[in-house]
Design brief:
Length: 694
C-alpha cells in the first residue's frame, strides 16, 4: 500500500534538506575553512589533518566540529571522527560518532545520528547514507516532546519510528519504510510505506488524514479526504464519507485565490437511491477586489431541510444567500445588497427576501453655520417578509451631531438632530395595497455630569444621565421594547420602516469603581418616561427599571448581569447573567437566562461548562445546557483531556436532545488525537458543544 500523505512534517524534513542538500553543495564548491589546535598538511597524500577542537566551516556558515577532521584535497573528501557536532544557520544541532564523504559529498556516510532541532524536537538514527539525489537515514525516531514535560520518565507523549527515510531531492519527496506512530512508547498506528512532499513543496496531491466518527443515529462514519493540487493558487479536496446506518455522502471543497478573486466552494451529495432522490448542499463564498470597491457574492442552499444537521455537516437552521457591493472613501459610503433567507426548521420552512437594498451616505458635509458633523443617509429596498408581505421602501435621513464638554460647569452634552423622510408601499394578500409618506423630525440631547472621588484604594465616578428627546406624535411606533442596551438610544427602532415617535425622556445613573487591587465595577440603572401612552410594550408612560452590572475581579474572573425589574410590583421581569471564573486548577463558566410570564414567550435556561486540572496535563471537563421551564436537558458533553507541548488526547461522550422531523436525538463518542505540530488525526462528534466553551 502506497499513500502520499499531505501532512506537516517540517521538522523532520527540514533536517533532511539542510543536512543532505545544502551541506553537499558547499563542499562541491570547495568553499571550506578549517580551524584546529593542530593542523598538519600531508603534501604527499594531499591531506589536511586537523586535531584538537577541529572546526570546518562552509560558505553557508554550517559549522562542523570534531576531535579530528581529515580533508583530502585530491578527491575532495572530508572525514570527521570522535564527537562530531554540526551547527547550521537555522540553529539546529547534529551529533554523530563518525562522518565520511567522497566525491565532493555527493556520496556520504555517517554513524549514530542525534539531532536537536531549533524548536526543541529531536531525531535519533543509527546511520545515514547519501548517493547523489537520494539521502537515506536508517532506524530513526522523531519526537517534538520536551524532555522536561514527560508525563512518564523516559517516555515521550508520542514519537514517529521508521525503519528507513528516503529523501529524493530531484522529485522533492520524502518516503518512509515501515512507519509507526507510538503514544507513550505504545504503537498505535502503522503504515508499511507512505510519502509526502518535502518542505520546499507548498502543496502536492495525495491523501489527507482519515477521520472516524461514531454516533447513535449515523452509526460509524469513515472519511478519507483526497487532496488534488490544481495550481499554486487553487486546489480541490474530495472526501467520501462511508456510513453504516445512513446513506453515504460525498463532499467536495474547491479553493481559488488571486489578486482579484477569493473563492471557496463546498458541496456534498448522498447516494440515496430510493424514490425520494438524493440530498445535497451547496455553499460558496466569493470576494472580488477592484479599485472601485469590493463585491461579495455568496450562497447557501440545500434541497433537504434536515440533510446537513442529520449528517453532522453543520447545525445551521437558516441559510443566507445574496451579494453585496461596497465602496467607501473619506466622506462617501455606497452599498448595494440583496439577500435571501431560507428557514429550515419544521416551525418555519419559508423564504425571506431583501432585493435590492441600496445605501448612499455622505459624511462630514461642509458646515459653516453650526459646529458639528452633518451626514446624509439614503436607502432604497424591496423585500418579501415571512408573512408574505411585500414592502417597497425609500428613505432619506439628514443627521447633525455635536459633542462638547463645558469646562466651567463640568457638564458633558451630545446633541443630535435628525430628519427622515420615508416612503413605504405595502402589498398584503389579504389587504389592498397601501402607500404612505412619513416624515420623522427629532431633536435629542444626552446630558451627563461626572462626579469623581479618589482615595488610596479606589477611583470612583458617579455620573447622572438625562436624555430628553423631542419628536412629534405619530400613529406608528416600533414594536421593539425598551431594554438595557437601547435605554439611551435616540431611536430604539432597528428598521428603516420604524421610528420611535413622541416626546420622551431617558434618565439613569452610572457608577464606575476602579480599585488599586485590580477590581473594576461598572453599574448603570435607568428608566424611560414617555409623554403619551402608546409606548412600545405597555400602555403606561413609565417603563420598567433597567439595571446593568459588569464586575471584573481580575483577568480570570468576571460577572456580567442584565436585569429588568417590573415598575409595578418590583419583581424580576428578565435576568441574564454570564460569568467566567478561574480558581487555581478549576475553570468554569455559567450562563443563565430568565424571562417571566409577563412576556409572550417566558423561558428559563442555564448553560455551564467547566474544566479541572486534577493531575499534571490531565483535565476533566463538562459542558451542558438545560431548560428549567420543562426541566429537560438540551444537550451535554463530558470527557477527559490530556494536553502538553507535543500531544493532545481528548475523549468525550456527548448527547444531543434536539429533534426536527428525521433529525433524532443522538449520542456518541468523540476521540481526538492531536500530534503537535502535525495536527489532528481523528475528530469525532465535533460541534457538539452545548454550554460555554472552556
Amino acid at each position: 500500500m502506497i499513500l502520499s500523505l499531505k501532512i506537516n512534517m517540517q521538522c523532520i524534513a527540514g533536517f533532511i534538506m539542510l543536512f543532505f542538500c545544502s551541506y553537499s553543495s558547499v563542499i562541491a564548491e570547495q568553499t571550506i575553512k578549517i580551524y584546529a589546535d593542530e593542523i598538519n598538511v600531508d603534501e604527499l597524500d594531499q591531506r589536511i589533518i586537523a586535531t584538537g577542537d577541529a572546526i570546518a566551516i562552509n560558505e553557508n556558515e554550517i559549522k562542523i566540529k570534531s576531535d579530528k577532521i581529515i580533508y583530502n584535497r585530491k578527491n575532495k573528501s572530508l572525514n570527521a571522527f570522535g564527537k562530531v557536532i554540526i551547527n547550521d544557520e537555522s540553529e539546529n544541532t547534529f551529533f554523530l560518532d563518525e562522518l565520511s564523504s567522497s566525491e565532493n559529498l555527493n556520496k556520504a556516510n555517517g554513524k549514530s545520528i542525534k539531532v536537536r532541532l531549533h524548536d526543541g524536537s529531536r531525531i535519533v538514527g543509527e546511520s545515514y547514507k547519501k548517493e547523489n539525489e537520494i539521502s537515506i537515514i536508517e532506524n530513526t525516531e522523531y519526537t517534538p516532546c520536551a524532555e522536561n514535560n514527560y508525563l512518564i520518565k523516559n517516555c515521550p507523549g508520542w514519537k514517529l519510528k521508521s525503519k528507513k527515510i528516503y529523501h529524493n531531492n530531484k522529485t522533492k519527496t520524502i518516503h518512509y519504510d515501515h512507519a509507526q506512530i507510538q503514544l507513550f512508547n505504545v504503537p498505535v498506528f502503522y503504515l508499511p510505506y507512505f510519502s509526502h512532499p518535502d518542505p520546499s513543496v507548498e502543496k502536492r496531491s495525495g491523501f489527507l488524514m482519515p477521520t472516524i466518527q461514531t454516533d447513535k443515529q449515523l452509526g460509524d462514519t469513515f472519511s478519507i479526504p483526497i487532496f488534488i493540487n490544481l495550481k499554486s493558487n487553487k486546489d480541490l479536496t474530495f472526501t467520501p464519507n462511508i456510513q453504516t446506518k445512513k446513506n453515504n455522502f460525498y463532499n467536495l471543497n474547491y479553493r481559488h485565490l488571486n489578486k482579484t478573486l477569493k473563492l471557496d466552494l463546498n458541496a456534498s451529495i448522498d447516494d440515496n437511491d430510493d424514490d425520494s432522490g438524493t440530498s445535497n448542499h451547496l455553499f460558496f463564498d466569493s470576494e472580488i477586489f477592484n479599485p472601485y470597491g469590493t463585491l461579495n457574492a455568496y450562497m447557501k442552499t440545500s434541497n433537504n431541510d434536515t440533510y446537513m444537521r442529520k449528517n453532522k455537516i453543520n447545525k445551521l437552521t437558516v441559510l443566507k444567500s445574496g451579494f453585496d457591493f461596497e465602496r467607501e472613501t473619506d466622506k462617501i459610503f455606497f452599498s448595494a445588497e440583496s439577500i435571501g433567507y431560507k428557514h429550515l426548521t419544521a416551525q418555519d420552512r419559508q423564504w425571506e427576501y431583501l432585493y435590492p437594498s441600496l445605501v448612499y451616505n455622505i459624511n462630514d458635509i461642509e458646515n459653516n453655520l453650526y459646529e458639528g458633523n452633518i451626514s446624509l443617509n439614503n436607502t432604497f429596498s424591496f423585500r418579501k417578509n415571512l408573512n408574505e408581505t411585500y414592502e417597497t421602501i425609500a428613505s432619506s435621513q439628514l443627521d447633525w451631531s455635536n459633542q462638547s464638554i463645558h469646562r466651567n460647569s463640568g457638564f458633558m452634552t451630545k446633541n443630535e438632530a435628525n430628519l427622515r423622510i420615508t416612503s413605504i408601499s405595502i402589498d398584503e394578500k389579504s389587504k389592498k395595497n397601501s402607500n404612505n409618506l412619513r416624515l420623522y423630525p427629532q431633536v435629542s440631547s444626552k446630558i451627563s455630569f461626572p462626579l469623581m472621588k479618589t482615595s488610596s484604594l479606589t477611583n470612583q465616578t458617579l455620573t447622572p444621565l438625562v436624555m430628553p428627546i423631542i419628536a412629534p406624535f405619530n400613529n406608528y411606533t416600533p414594536s421593539k421594547a425598551v431594554t438595557n442596551s437601547n435605554l439611551f438610544s435616540s431611536n430604539r427602532a432597528t428598521s428603516i420602516t420604524e421610528w420611535e415617535s413622541g416626546p420622551r425622556i431617558n434618565y439613569g445613573l452610572e457608577w464606575f469603581i476602579n480599585s488599586t487591587n485590580g477590581i473594576n465595577v461598572m453599574t448603570i440603572i435607568g428608566q424611560s418616561y414617555r409623554f403619551n401612552k402608546d409606548n412600545m410594550d405597555t400602555d403606561k408612560e413609565i417603563s420598567d427599571y433597567f439595571f446593568d452590572s459588569n464586575i471584573i475581579l481580575n483577568s480570570n474572573n468576571y460577572l456580567y448581569s442584565s436585569l429588568i425589574i417590573d415598575r409595578d410590583d418590583l419583581k424580576t421581569k428578565s435576568l441574564s447573567t454570564n460569568s467566567f471564573n478561574m480558581f487555581g486548577d478549576l475553570i468554569f463558566a455559567i450562563n443563565y437566562d430568565y424571562t417571566s410570564g409577563k412576556y409572550d414567550n417566558p423561558s428559563e435556561q442555564i448553560a455551564l461548562g467547566g474544566k479541572y486540572n486534577f493531575k499534571r496535563n490531565l483535565f476533566i471537563k463538562f459542558t451542558g445546557s438545560k431548560n428549567l421551564d420543562t426541566n429537560k436537558n438540551i444537550g451535554y458533553q463530558y470527557g477527559i483531556l490530556y494536553e502538553n507541548d507535543c500531544l493532545g488526547i481528548d475523549f468525550n461522550y456527548y448527547r444531543d436532545l434536539t429533534k426536527d422531523r428525521d433529525v433524532e436525538e443522538s449520542d456518541g463518542f468523540s476521540f481526538t488525537v492531536v500530534l503537535k505540530p502535525f495536527g489532528s488525526t481523528n475528530n469525532y462528534g465535533k460541534n457538539k458543544v452545548f454550554g460555554p466553551q472552556i
